[in-house]
Amino acid sequence: PCFNGDYVGCRHGGTFHVFDRLTQMLNVGLSRDVDTWALLGDNFYDPHGVLSPQFMQALSMPAKSKPMVVVPGNHDFWQHGSPHSRTGYDTYGNGYMQYWGTDTQASLANASMPFDFRVDPSTKEIAAAGNFFSYNMIGSLATITFSGAHHKDVMDPLFQEACEWVKREQPSYVFVLGHWSGVDLGCAEKMSTRDVHERIKKMPG
Asked: Which residue range or ranges hold the Calcineurin-like phosphoesterase domain (predicted)?
């Protein structure tokens, strides 16, 4: 939240100069032997799309050249009250489509319609789960990213699909990346990152 004091209150944000210091640290860290980096949800609190380009412009070219993995948080897509941690400053993006050019399952879908728009967020339903799910490989590292806001019975078939892909590709390491560390923080039942990790380990693949 201290990253952007305009939309989320931060008592000491100005004192610590969070925006400047964070981007400076990223530029130093990502200029070294780093293969990839990740943003694990609630990424910008950027309802007007102003802060995201400012952030990217502050990054050096070496930092921008490193692949970035993005995980959705509850403030990164249209929640409309579910979970209850929604605020008036949420991004209101449908999936990753608003400010990020992030390939979820787009490469597997029809090129003219890479996202699933059958769920209307204005009905207070969360957008389709596939818009918030991805599996990719960078070198020998595979990543599986997901939204904990969706229910277990919706997500488990997608996790099984990812496990079958892992079996085919045989990466050296697999990272399961999510936003919620505990069920009491607003995610769906059995959809915290820890719960999903334990469940995926037992799936065939």
From this structure: 18-181
